Structure formats: structure tokens, C-alpha cells
From TrEMBL:
<dbReference type="Pfam" id="PF13855">
    <property type="entry name" value="LRR_8"/>
</dbReference>
<dbReference type="InterPro" id="IPR017441">
    <property type="entry name" value="Protein_kinase_ATP_BS"/>
</dbReference>
<dbReference type="GO" id="GO:0004674">
    <property type="term" value="F:protein serine/threonine kinase activity"/>
</dbReference>
<keyword id="KW-0547">Nucleotide-binding</keyword>
<dbReference type="InterPro" id="IPR011009">
    <property type="entry name" value="Kinase-like_dom_sf"/>
</dbReference>
<comment type="similarity">
    <text>Belongs to the RLP family.</text>
</comment>
<keyword id="KW-0808">Transferase</keyword>
<dbReference type="Pfam" id="PF23598">
    <property type="entry name" value="LRR_14"/>
</dbReference>
<keyword id="KW-0325">Glycoprotein</keyword>
<keyword id="KW-0732">Signal</keyword>
<keyword id="KW-0675">Receptor</keyword>
<dbReference type="InterPro" id="IPR055414">
    <property type="entry name" value="LRR_R13L4/SHOC2-like"/>
</dbReference>
<dbReference type="InterPro" id="IPR008266">
    <property type="entry name" value="Tyr_kinase_AS"/>
</dbReference>
<keyword id="KW-0067">ATP-binding</keyword>
<dbReference type="InterPro" id="IPR001611">
    <property type="entry name" value="Leu-rich_rpt"/>
</dbReference>
<dbReference type="InterPro" id="IPR000719">
    <property type="entry name" value="Prot_kinase_dom"/>
</dbReference>
<dbReference type="GO" id="GO:0005886">
    <property type="term" value="C:plasma membrane"/>
</dbReference>
Length: 767
């Protein structure tokens, strides 16, 4: 341990000495690298008012240095720097990482950026940068991520970018770029993500694109690209998962070879001038989740093989010239929750749909209708369904977690990501609230007989009579409702006034978005929702015991919750968070873990609820945030960094877990943590919930100490030093050493210093 630590330090010092001596020897002739670096940071003005003492620059905010004291990373994202990118930036020749996203920067991109030859990350998105992309950027051959999205950059894409052969992410979206895609981009054989949407690019897609064998995302929507037969070359890019060519001027037909792209999750070809029919082989795309071909001139009938697309969540074929009848196989699509076949020339009858996710609101006179009507504008079509398909089998057919998380990733790529990029623009124009959803009002209840509808909910609660109310919060009330089938559900209903508040509306929709797609045995299940302006409610699995907060404070329940149950509750929460952070791509952060948002079923199993503020952490979007969460549970760094990371949840988890052991909010203990020496005189047993007798079993005592050690690691003031939730879960499984000190002797100080946990993998908490 000791030797492995000192080694790099000695090496580093050696290097520093060598470098400094080189630097001094050079300084006679011209300015040394260190001097020009100091000059560059001073001239940038970005640390003005912070310090003028450049010798201390490695300690300035957003700067990281190597052992030689040379700057290697600058991350000032989300700080309102204003001003320009100074040409002197090119003198920071050791820079590997430069993130100035969302910094209110204006001016042009200086050519000297091309001197930063070690750079592997360059993020300048969401600023007010104008002018061209300098060809000199082509010299940054180590670059893996280049993001200039959301600026006012004009001119054409320089061919020189083709030299960036290590590039994995190229994001030039939402600028004013013109001209065509240079064929040299075909040399970017490592490229995985290509975002060029919302520009004024034109011409056809160059043949060379077919060399981008690693491409997973191609998003070039909202340009003026042309091309006949949706470029056949895409058929060679077999790793493509998301194709968005919408809102361009592509002509010709959809080639059947697209059906070979087996990894495809979303295909958006809407708002082009496509003719011909939908290839029947589309049924081969087993992973296809979003299919949007709306506003083209497609003819012929809807292929019946569309019924093979088991993963399909959204199908939009509206505004085409499709004729014939709607294939009854559509009824097989049990995950479908958005369907739009409006304004075609469809005839015959609407098939009896699998109505679990698409709610049927009007079921009078044996005529079932979906609202809003996805069949409107088809003159020869009878819009009535005479019965509904229900199938109990699908409930058990829960797909593996990762598969369920992926659809969110797509939503994210194409809608949320867009919203994030433009949030600033929008914020200036409109009050908060996000884009109006495509469907406006929707109601959807599933898992049960599709006939259970709005009316049953109203009947079960006598129109939300207060007698059925089991809780009231700032947003609205929670009701308990027994459905005609006997099943008891919980309803969370927004108060009328709150329903008109865009913030509550947004949080409701956010909750729906997450809970419909993520599944975990310790995450509360959503059975349905109703988003009528008149009445907005969510329908959940009913949790007999209510919140953890309530149970800890109820004399009877608190005693019922013995140490073993409490440890199980803590483990249940940890598993959920580990799942959200590590098994979902992109990772999901809950952001509001509190004892109120952890519910217990009748056997005291913990269920995490309330995803109203949850969000995804994406590779290339800002993780900047406004402060949300519950007071007393929010990680201390959030207040000043405003950057959300998984580690914020880890801290909140620590607070709830400690509260579970203490039986009350650990306010006082938390206030001692910044100066741990104050913990020397506090024993663990002094803070444990005195509703419960101390554990008599040595094993339980040992578990308690083990869990408490992990909790204090999670409460570390410095986010980087907190373990990840995955590490926490791994720790739960690790072999423990037995306690060699009596429980009553153990102080909080020892727990904070990990002195009590000397197990084999104790290092994981020290990372
Ligand atoms: C840095 O120098 C400038 C001008 O030399 C001065 O106005 C400013 O107050 C100084 N800032 C600090 C923090 O010393
Ligand atoms: C830095 O960039 C400028 C402008 O591109 C160039 O003139 C100069 O030679 C470069 N300096 C070095 C050390 O590469
Ligand atoms: C880019 O925009 C500027 C104005 O911001 C304009 O003067 C310049 O001609 C534009 N360049 C191109 C290539 O369109
Ligand atoms: C298309 O992109 C431009 C920016 O280049 C943007 O202003 C416009 O809103 C986009 N159109 C749509 C429909 O998204
Ligand atoms: C379909 O999706 C699953 C889950 O993401 C993935 O494992 C599988 O490889 C995909 N199929 C293809 C052909 O890419
Ligand atoms: C659908 O349209 C195609 C041509 O547009 C025509 O050949 C075919 O007969 C039509 N089918 C029906 C059922 O109307
Ligand atoms: C269907 O899409 C059209 C635009 O193509 C939109 O105006 C309409 O509201 C959508 N209807 C449904 C039911 O989603
Ligand atoms: C659905 O469940 C009912 C009773 O729960 C059963 O009678 C029926 O056979 C099931 N249907 C299918 C398709 O499994
Ligand atoms: C409580 O939840 C756990 C985990 O989902 C489950 O295994 C258990 O059966 C539930 N208990 C009851 C009584 O429903
Ligand atoms: C946001 O967080 C995720 C997960 O930690 C990370 O992969 C991503 O790089 C972050 N984004 C930025 C722009 O820092």
C-alpha cells in the first residue's frame, strides 16, 4: 500500500523537477510554457475576482493539474463566464479536457484551439458562439468528443474534421451550418454518435458515410437533405440503433434493406416526401420501439407483419395515403401506448385493440373509442371497436431490466435532449412546463381488464370523496380505491389548481415517463394514469404500511420494524438506486430520496416512489440542475455546484438509512460530520432508535455495524469519496469479519474512519 502510493509521487516530483528545469532553461530565450500558461489564464478573465495569484492556479475552481503543476483539465461548464474564448487558450498545451458548455460565451472559435493537441474532450455547447468552425480543429487528433451544439455557428462543416479519427461523439446540432456533409467524415470510423439536427445543411448524404461501421445514432432531422430511396448506404451500418432523418427532403421509397438493421430501436422518417409502400419486412425489426413515418406520401396498406414488433411503444403513420384495412395483428402490440393513423385512406373496421395501455374512454353502446381518436380523418373507416383484447399473460412476461430502460434512452435522445439544448432559448420565451405533449390529454390504465376505466375510478372513490383520502401533500391528495375486481390501488390526484401549475404537470408527466418503463421489485408500480385537464391522477400499487417516515414515528409499527427488517429496508433502497444508477442507460438519478418517498408493503419491504423529479444523466448533456429534493436530505455540494450526479442520491440514501436506524431524522449527527472529531464521544448505541432493544444476536449486531459503516461512507462531505450504490450493494454481499469490540463500545468516529470494518473488500468504501 505504502510503496504503491509513494512511487507515483516520487516519479511526479522527478518529472516536475525535470519539467521546471526545462522550463527555466527555456525562459531565457522566450516565454516558458508555464509562464505563458499563467498569462493565458490571467488574460481569460474567467477567474477574475477570484485571485490574481497565478502561482495558485491549480487550486482555482474548475482547474485540474498534473504532478508538474501544468493544467490538464478545465471544467467551467454552467458558469456564466460571458465574453470570448481568448486566443491564449492555445497556450495551455497540456490540456486534455475542456468543458465550457453553457457559459454564455460569445465571439468566434479561435484557431489556436487547434494547438491543444492532447485534447480528448471539447465541449462548447449551448453558448452564443458565432462564425465558422476553424479547420484547425482537425489537428485535435486525440479528440473523442466534440460538441459545439446549440450555438450560432455558420459556414460549412470543414473537411478537416475527417482527420479526427478517434472521435466517438460529434455533435454540431442546433447551429446555422450550411453546405453538405463533407465526404471526409467517412474517415471517422470510430464515430458512434452523429448529431447534425436543426441546421441548414443540404445535399445528399455522401457515399462515404457507409464506412462509419460503429455508428449507433444518426440524427440529422430538420435540415434540407435530399436523396432518393432513403440512402441505401445506411443499410450497411448494422450497429445503428437510432435513425432520425425527419423533416428533410428525402424522396423515393423506403428500401427493404433497412429491415436488416436488427439493432434498430427508433426510426424517424417523418416529414419527407417518401412514396411507395411500407416494406412488409419491417416486422423483422424486433427491437423497434419507435416508428414514425408521418407526413409523407406513403401508399398501399399497413403490413400485417407490423404485429411482430413486440417492442413497439409508439407508432405514427399519420398523414400519408395508406389504404386498405388496419391489420388485426396490431392488436398483438401489447406495449403500444401511442398510436396515430389519422389522415390516411384506411377503410373497414378498427380491429379490437389490445387496450391495456391505450385507454378507451367512451364505452357506451358497446362501442369503444380511444381518446384522442387515432383514426380520425379516414373517411371509410368505422371508428368503433366492439370489444377489447385482454391478455393476462403479458403481466408475467416482464422483460429484463436493461431492455426496459432503453426506450427511455430513445425518448431522451430525441425529445429530452432537444429540450435540454433549447431550454435556455425557451426559458426566455415561455414560462416553464416543457413542450406540449404530442397527444395532449391522455388516459391510460393497464395490467387489468381494459374495461376498467375512468368511470370505475370515479365510482370506487365516489368522485374522490374525502372519506377515501389517505394523505394530503402540497400537490394534492392520495386516495385508496378498491376496484370492482377487488384489487386495491392508491391514487395520487392533483388538486384542481395545482393541475394548472406547469411545474406539477411536468412532475406528473415525468413520473409517468419513468414508471412506465422501469421495473424493479422494489420500485412502486404504476398501474395507470389520467391526464385530463379536469382531473389528473396516477394509479399505483397500494402499499399497506404507507411511508417509511410514518412507520418510524408510529409507536406500534416502529417496534414491529426490528433491526433485521430495518436492515432489509436499507438494502432494498440500495438495490433500487444501484439499478437506477448502473443498470439503466443513461443512468437515472432520483433526486428526491427521503423517508417520505420510501413506501412499505405489509411485510415491511421497501419500495421507492415519487419519480417526479428524477432525471437521466446523459453523456453529452449538461447535468446542471435547479435545486430540488427535500430539505434535510439534499447533498451539501448541490447547493453550490448545482450539478447533479449519482452521488447526490448516495448522500440522500445515507440520510434515510441513518434515519431508519435512529428512528428520527439524523439532523444533529449530520451537523457533526464536517468535523468528525466531535464524534469521538458519541457511541453508536446512543443514537440507535430507543424504541427497539439493542440486538442480542452477535450476527445482527455485526450487520448493524457493517451497515452503519457504509452509511457514514455515503454521507462523506466530498461526493467523490462516497461509494457508488453498486459498491454499497456489493459490500452487503461481502464476507464480514466478526466484531472484536462490544457493540456498546463503538463510537461514531470509529465508524466514520472505517475502523470497525476491516473486511476483505473494505477498500471499496475508501475509493
Ligand atoms: C486583480 O487585479 C485587478 C487589476 O490589476 C484588480 O482590479 C483586482 O481587484 C484584483 N483582484 C484581486 C482578487 O486581487
Ligand atoms: C498555435 O496556433 C497558432 C494559430 O493557429 C499558430 O500560428 C502557432 O504556430 C501555434 N503554435 C504552436 C506552438 O503550435
Ligand atoms: C456567418 O454569419 C456572419 C454574421 O454573424 C456573416 O457575416 C457571415 O457572412 C456568415 N458566414 C457565412 C459563411 O455565411
Ligand atoms: C429547425 O431548426 C431551427 C434551427 O436551425 C429551429 O429554429 C427550428 O425551430 C427547428 N424546427 C423544428 C420544427 O424543430
Ligand atoms: C435487441 O435489444 C436487446 C436489448 O437491448 C439486445 O440485447 C439485443 O442485442 C438487440 N438485438 C439486436 C439484434 O441488436
Ligand atoms: C390502395 O391504393 C393502391 C394504389 O394507390 C391501389 O392499387 C389499391 O387498389 C388500393 N387498395 C385498396 C384496398 O383500396
Ligand atoms: C396524430 O398526428 C397528427 C399530426 O400528424 C396530430 O395533429 C394529431 O394530434 C395526432 N393525433 C393523435 C391521436 O395522436
Ligand atoms: C385470463 O385469466 C382468466 C381468469 O383470471 C382465465 O380464466 C383466462 O383463461 C385467462 N386468459 C388467458 C388468455 O390466459
Ligand atoms: C412485499 O414486497 C416484497 C418485494 O416485492 C414481496 O416479495 C412480498 O411478497 C411483498 N409482501 C406482501 C405481503 O405483498
Ligand atoms: C453527466 O453525468 C453522466 C453520469 O455520471 C456522465 O457520464 C456524463 O459525462 C455527465 N455529463 C457531462 C456533460 O458532464
Amino acid at each position: 500500500m505504502v510503496s504503491s502510493f509513494t512511487h507515483p509521487i516520487i516519479l511526479g516530483l522527478l518529472w516536475a523537477t525535470i519539467l521546471i528545469s526545462i522550463a527555466t532553461s527555456m525562459s531565457t530565450a522566450e516565454q516558458s510554457p508555464l509562464e505563458s500558461e499563467a498569462k493565458a489564464v490571467l488574460e481569460s478573465g474567467w477567474w477574475n475576482g477570484y485571485s490574481n495569484d497565478t502561482s495558485q492556479r491549480c487550486k482555482w475552481p474548475g482547474i485540474s493539474c498534473n504532478f508538474a503543476g501544468i493544467i490538464t483539465e478545465i471544467d467551467l461548464s454552467d458558469r456564466g463566464l460571458g465574453g470570448n474564448i481568448p486566443p491564449g487558450i492555445g497556450d495551455l498545451s497540456a490540456l486534455e479536457y475542456l468543458d465550457l458548455s453553457n457559459c454564455d460565451l460569445s465571439g468566434e472559435l479561435p484557431t489556436s484551439l487547434g494547438n491543444l493537441s492532447l485534447l480528448h474532450f471539447l465541449g462548447l455547447s449551448r453558448n452564443y458562439i458565432h462564425g465558422p468552425i476553424p479547420s484547425a480543429l482537425g489537428q485535435l487528433t486525440n479528440l473523442r468528443t466534440l460538441s459545439l451544439a446549440g450555438n450560432q455557428i455558420n459556414g460549412s462543416i470543414p473537411s478537416a474534421l475527417g482527420q479526427l479519427t478517434n472521435l466517438q461523439i460529434l455533435n454540431l446540432a442546433y447551429n446555422q451550418l450550411e453546405g453538405s456533409i463533407p465526404s471526409a467524415l467517412g474517415q471517422l470510423t470510430n464515430l458512434q454518435y452523429l448529431y447534425l439536427y436543426d441546421n441548414q445543411l443540404e445535399g445528399s448524404i455522401p457515399q462515404e458515410i457507409e464506412k462509419l461501421k460503429n455508428l449507433r445514432v444518426l440524427a440529422i432531422t430538420n435540415n434540407s437533405f435530399i436523396g432518393h430511396d432513403i440512402p441505401l448506404l445506411l443499410c450497411h451500418l448494422t450497429k445503428l440503433e437510432h435513425i432520425n432523418l425527419g423533416l428533410n427532403q428525402f424522396t423515393g421509397s423506403i428500401p427493404s434493406c433497412l429491415c436488416n438493421l436488427e439493432a434498430l430501436f427508433s426510426l424517424y422518417l417523418s416529414q419527407n416526401r417518401l412514396i411507395g409502400s411500407i416494406p412488409s419486412c419491417v416486422g423483422n425489426l424486433y427491437n423497434l420501439t419507435f416508428l414514425d413515418l408521418h407526413s409523407n406520401q406513403l401508399q398501399g396498406s399497413i403490413p400485417s407483419d407490423i404485429g411482430n414488433l413486440e417492442a413497439l411503444i409508439s407508432l405514427d403513420l399519420s398523414q400519408n395515403r395508406l389504404n386498405g384495412s388496419i391489420p388485426s395483428q396490431i392488436a398483438m402490440l401489447h406495449r403500444l401506448s401511442e398510436l396515430n393513423l389519422t389522415f390516411n385512406q384506411l377503410s373497414g373496421y378498427v380491429p379490437n385493440l389490445y387496450a391495456t395501455k391505450l385507454l378507451i374512454v367512451d364505452n357506451s353502446n358497446d362501442c369503444y373509442k380511444i381518446y384522442p381518436d387515432p383514426f380520425e380523418g379516414n373517411k371509410a373507416l368505422s371508428p368503433c371497436m366492439n370489444s377489447l383484447v385482454t391478455n393476462n399473460a403479458t403481466n408475467n412476461k416482464s422483460p429484463p431490466y436493461i431492455k426496459i430502460c432503453l426506450p427511455i434512452a430513445i425518448f431522451y435522445t430525441f425529445s429530452i435532449l432537444g429540450c435540454l439544448f433549447f431550454s435556455r432559448v425557451k426559458a426566455n420565451n415561455k414560462p416553464a412546463g416543457g413542450r406540449p405533449t404530442k397527444n395532449g390529454d391522455i388516459c391510460s390504465i393497464w395490467n387489468y381488464d381494459g374495461k376498467i376505466a375512468y368511470e370505475d375510478i370515479i365510482a370506487a372513490t365516489e368522485d374522490f370523496d374525502f372519506r377515501y383520502c389517505i394523505g394530503v401533500g402540497g400537490y394534492g391528495s392520495v386516495y385508496r380505491a378498491q376496484l370492482p375486481c377487488g384489487k386495491v390501488v392508491a391514487l395520487k390526484k392533483l388538486h384542481r389548481l395545482e393541475a394548472e401549475n406547469p411545474a406539477f404537470d411536468k412532475s406528473f408527466r415525468n413520473e409517468i415517463k419513468f414508471l412506465t418503463e422501469i421495473r424493479h421489485r422494489n420500485i412502486v408500480k404504476l398501474h395507470g394514469f389520467c391526464l385530463h385537464r379536469r382531473s389528473m391522477f396516477l394509479i399505483y400499487e397500494y402499499m399497506e404500511k404507507g411511508s417509511l417516515f410514518y412507520n418510524l414515528r408510529d409507536e406500534v409499527e416502529a417496534v414491529e420494524m426490528d433491526w433485521t427488517k430495518r436492515i432489509e429496508i436499507i438494502k432494498g433502497m440500495a438495490h433500487v438506486l444501484s439499478y437506477l444508477h448502473h443498470d439503466c442507460t443513461p443512468p437515472i438519478v432520483h433526486r428526491d430520496i427521503s423517508s417520505n418517498n420510501v413506501l412499505l408493503n405489509s411485510s415491511f419491504q421497501a419500495f421507492v416512489a415519487d419519480f417526479g423529479t428524477a432525471r437521466m444523466l446523459d453523456l453529452d448533456s449538461s447535468n446542471h440542475t435547479i435545486l430540488v429534493g427535500t430539505r434535510g436530505y439534499i447533498a451539501p455540494e448541490l447547493a453550490y455546484t448545482m450539478v447533479v450526479t449519482e452521488k447526490c442520491d448516495v448522500y440522500s440514501f445515507g440520510v434515510v438509512a441513518l434515519e431508519t436506524l435512529m428512528g428520527k431524522h439524523p439532523e444533529e449527527v449530520l451537523s457533526w460530520l464536517p468535523s468528525p472529531s466531535s464524534l469521538v464521544n458519541t457511541k453508536l448505541i446512543d443514537v440507535l432508535d430507543n424504541c427497539l432493544p439493542l440486538p442480542t444476536s452477535q450476527l445482527v449486531a455485526q450487520n448493524l455495524v457493517h451497515v452503519a459503516t457504509l452509511i457514514f461512507a455515503c454521507l462523506n462531505q466530498r461526493p467523490k469519496l462516497r461509494p457508488t450504490m453498486k459498491e454499497v450493494c456489493k459490500e452487503f454481499l461481502s464476507r464480514q469479519t466478526s466484531l472484536n469490540v462490544p457493540l456498546r463500545m463503538i463510537s461514531l468516529f470509529q465508524l466514520v474512519k472505517h475502523e470497525m470494518h476491516i473486511g476483505e473488500s473494505s477498500d471499496t468504501c475508501n475509493v
